[in-house]
Every structure is written in C-alpha cells, then in structure tokens.
Amino acid sequence: MPSINKYDAIVIGGGHNGLTAAAYLSRAGKKVLVLERRHVLGGAAVTEEVFPGFKFSVCSYVVSLMKPNVMRELMLPKFGLELLPLESTFTPLDGDYLMRTADGDQTYREIARHSKKDAEAYKRFGPLMGQIGMAVRPILETIAPNALRPSLSDMLAAKRLLDHFKTLSNEQFEYLTKLMTMSSADFLDEWFEFEPLKSTMSASGIIGTFMGPRSPGSAYVMLHHYMGDIDGAFRAWGFQRGGTGEVSMAIARSAEHFGATIMTEASVKNVIVKNGRATGVALENGDEYISDMVISGLDPKLSFLKMVEEKELPSDFVRSIKNFRIRGSSGKVNLALDGLPDFTCLPGEGHHHRGAISISPDFDYLENAYDDAKYGNFSKRPFMDIILPSVLDPEMAPPGKHVMSCFVQYAPYNLKGGWDDNKREAFGDAVVNALARYAPNIKDIILHRQVLTPADLEDTFGLTEGNIFHGELTVQQLFSLRPAVKWADYTTPIKNYFQCGSGTHPGGGITGSPGEMAAKKILGIH
After folding, report:
1. What are the φ and ψ backbone dihedral angles of 480, each rounded to 5 degrees?
2. What is the largest CA-CA distance in the chain?
3. How far apart are alpha carbons 230 and 236 in whole angstroms?
C-alpha cells in the first residue's frame, strides 16, 4: 500500500539549486520535502571518496558565481561554506609559461615578459570587464519577463532594466554588444597579441559549450564566467574546503535548519497532474507524496519530457523544449596522485600548483580540439582546466598524496559509434598524454584514475547528454528564452509546477541563483 504524505512544496532533485529553493521556501515557513535520486546530495556539485582516502569534487570543481546575498540570507558560512581562493592561472608552454595571479603588479611583469603592449592592455581590460559584469548583473538578478504577454510586473522589470542600460557609458555599451555577439577569439584579438594569453582567456568562453573559441557567441560565455565574486573580489575563483559537495551540504544544512525534510535514494518517477495542476509526485518505489506545489531542479528535458506526460503540455511548448539545445561537450578525469606533477617549464613545487592550470597554448590548439568534436570524436589533444584541490585542502588526500581534477573538452555526447569502456579509457589516455607533454612525470605518479564521459555524467548525475549547464548558454537560450519563451519566469504551463534548475535564467555555474529566484517568484517577494 503506497504511503501518502502532504507537504506545502516538493522539490525534485537535491542539487544545489533545488536545495537553495528548498531553503528559501522553508525560511518562509513552508513545509518542504526534497527528493534526491542518488545516495548523496549535491547533484553535479558533489564530493565523493572515489578511491580510499582520496576525495574528489567529481563533477563541478570550482566556485566563483555563488551569489553573496544567497550566502548571507541562508547563513551558509555558519553551515560550512568556506571558500579558499585559487591564487593563479598557470599556462604551461613548450619551453616557457604564462602566469597570472591576484597580484596586479606581478601579473603585469609576467605578461610584459611576453608582450609589453599586452601588459598595458591587460591593466585596462580587467576593470572594463568588471564594469561590464556589474552592468549585466541586474539582468541576472531579474526574473525574466514574459516578452510576448507581459504582466504589469514584467513591464516594470523591463523598465528598470532599460533605465539601467541608459546609465551605461558608450564604451560599456559597445563592449557589451560585442560580448553578446562575437567569438571570444575575435574579441580578445582586439585587445592582445600574445597567443597563449588570448587562448587561455578565451577558454572561459568554451567551458561547457559545444563551441570553439572562434564560434560566435563564445564571448558571452566568457563574460558569464567573469560575473562572480568571492568575498567581494570580482572575477575571483575559489575552491570550497572539502570539495564542491560541501557547498551543497552547507545549503542542505541551512534548509534543514529552516525545517526542510531531505530524502536521498528517493527517485521520482513522475509528477502527479490532475486537471492541469501539479498535486504531488510518485516515486519509483510506488510511494506518493502530495503537495500544494512541485518544483523541479532537473534540466528542462527531464522536467517536461520525463516527469510529465506530453498531453499535459501545449504542443508549442513541447516543441520548444525538444528544440532546446543541451549538447554535452565535456568530460572529467579525476586522478589520485603519488606526488605533484613536475612541469618542465617550471620545475619543482611552487605557486603554480595552488591555482588553475590551463592546457591552452594557442587558438589553433583549442580550435583543433573542437574540430575533433565537430566530427564526432573526442579531442586527441584536449583543452584542460586543472586544479589540485589537495594542495589547498590537505584533507582531500592521504598525507603526501594528491588529487587532481581535470575538466576536459571536448568529449561529445554523440560520439561516433557511441561511448563504451574502451573509448572511455582511450579518452582518459588522451588526457594523460596531453598533460604529459608539459609534466612528463604524470604517468609515473598516477595511483588511480576516474574517467567520466558525457554519457557517464548523464547516467550518474542525471544531466541530459552530460551538459553541465542544463542547456547551452547561447544568445537564443538566455533570459526570456531560457528555457522557452513565455516560461522563463520559473513557472510552467502546468499550474503549481515550477522549475529551478540551471536550465532556467540565469544559467549554469554554482550560483544558487535559479533556486533563489524561483523561490522568491513562488513567494511573490522578488
């Protein structure tokens, strides 16, 4: 006999956005239940001890975009949020290297070593991008209005944004327009001449997207990654002590503090819909939970094509969701190491191990990696964004050992012939070989290796096609179009069924923003 329980709100998915929505709703006095399919909370922001003694941020691996007001309003530092700054970005080259740090003078001297012109330009570029990021932030913090049938509140929100844009200088408006439309390569070509500097900066524009640095639209993705801060330091990246799963756990503890109930190993089969209204959920084990509203933290494909029957949705909406671009392009390789990688261009242990390591020597390297993916193959010489969490947080590995997190592009979900164990291992080999070009000792110090393809990200984390952003961050899928026109305000065509995942505005990253704004929309306080 199925058990029946009644709640004010049920959240599907214990990812960080679902947990954020639950925390805000519980904070407002709602009786909230969170249902997570896996045995562990966090969705893609999760920490797991994959090998004995070695803890990994298995999927998401850095924190930059978390909203300060979310941290404050949910009291996250009280519940374990502790962000450690990533101090540098290191790009190894053949016989040389590029290093950028938080020290402006040091970075100036380092860039000037390669190009005095670029060092001067970099001094202007950072503040301008910061200004543009701040100019765009009000868009990210506004519930996207219905552009076709705007309500009074939609029109007021649009007016506030219009008034805001009137305050931009001509230079800011010019560069914002370029960033919304250009490729990251073309945009950076207007500023700099040293190829490794341009290619490393452009890499932010391809992360999580099926685009290359020369693809129009990649400049916006680059801007998206410039819009976070840590402790007020704009464009700062950090690592959560204990891994990104501890970000999710801090939010979960906040939600429970405010009264939420959280269940793991509770796989939702479908949303119960009666007379066009969501009334609860049914689990795979037959249990049912009744509620006044249901909020999905899943991606749009799962929220609308799996959780509910198509007959419950308008045909034009179903078509929009089916056309929503959600192609997976990334893989992850997690390494347990017996020591630190020794880079030929900068031997020994040093500052470069405490920050990000970018395998992005030039545009052709990145574009050739993308070319492999365009034709259905994983990149033979992939782009990698690497960090060594155990250098920042020794608790991540046994004494004297280390963990290495390698975010890798490109690994297309629709690999020619499909993914299997042999291709997964070949992909892992390509990653290690690309790294060995710059740190030859890497092959000798690998103790264990975890390789995750987009198919694995889909199977394990429930990310359709392994897309880490729940949908590409392209112009046609932003703001009032994310995930579909008329339904970008966290509501859906089904009454009392809401969405709060990264497939909604403002998109992916560890931000908490979709969860926060969905909850505030529901509560009518935004």
Report:
1. -75, 0
2. 75
3. 6
The domains found in the chain, sorted by start residue, are 4-45+64-83+241-325+465-523 (3.50.50.60)
**Sequence-ordered list of residues with C-beta below 8 angstroms from that of 520, at least 6 positions apart, any chain:** 24, 143, 526
Strand partners, 261: 33
Spatial distance between the Cα atoms of 271 and 278, rounded to a whole number of angstroms: 7
Residue 92, preceding bond cis, omega within 30 degrees?
Answer: no
Q: Is 378 left (phi over 0), alpha (psi -120 to 50) or beta?
A: beta
DSSP symbols for 168-193? S-HHHHHHHHHHHHS-HHHHHHTT--
Give the contacts of 33 (CB within 8 A, at least 6 positions apart): 5, 7, 9, 10, 11, 260, 261, 262, 263, 289, 291
Q: Return the DSSP state at 475.
A: G
- Please check whether residue 302 is in contact with residue 464, taking contact to mean a CB–CB distance below 8 angstroms: yes
CA dihedral sign, ordered 501, 505, 507, 512: negative
What is the residue-level pLDDT of the chain in tens, covering all 526 positions? Answer: 344 589 999 999 999 999 999 999 999 999 999 999 999 999 999 999 999 999 999 888 787 778 889 999 999 999 999 988 888 899 999 999 999 998 889 999 999 999 999 999 999 998 888 888 878 888 888 888 887 888 888 888 888 888 888 888 888 889 888 988 999 999 999 999 999 999 999 998 898 889 999 999 999 888 877 665 433 344 457 888 999 999 999 999 999 999 999 999 999 999 999 999 999 999 999 999 999 999 999 999 999 999 999 999 999 999 999 999 999 999 999 999 999 999 999 999 999 999 999 999 999 999 999 999 999 999 999 999 999 999 999 999 999 999 999 999 999 999 999 999 999 999 999 999 999 999 999 999 999 999 999 999 999 999 999 999 999 988 889 888 999 999 999 999 999 999 999 999 998 888 899 999 999 999 987 5
Q: What are phi and psi of 261, to 5 degrees?
A: -105, 130
Query: Which 8-state DSSP code applies to residue 286?
Result: S
Rg, the chain, Cα only = 22
- Distance between CA atoms of 490 and 94, rounded to whole angstroms? 48
Helix 116-140 vs helix 152-165: angle between axes, to the nearest 10 degrees? 160
Distance CA 474, CA 206 (A): 11
- Sole residue written with tokens 């370029």: 178
Q: What angle do CA 257, 258, 259 make, to 5 degrees?
A: 90
CA nearest to 413, candidates 210, 212, 205, 204: 210
Instruction: Name which of 520, 524, 505, 19 is nearest 257 in CA terms.
Output: 19
Reported as half-sphere exposure (CB side, CA atoms, 13 A), residue 302 has a value of 26
Rounded to whole angstroms, what are the CA distances from 422 to 46, 368, 408, 425? 26, 23, 18, 5
Give the C-alpha separation, 41 to 33, whole Å: 14
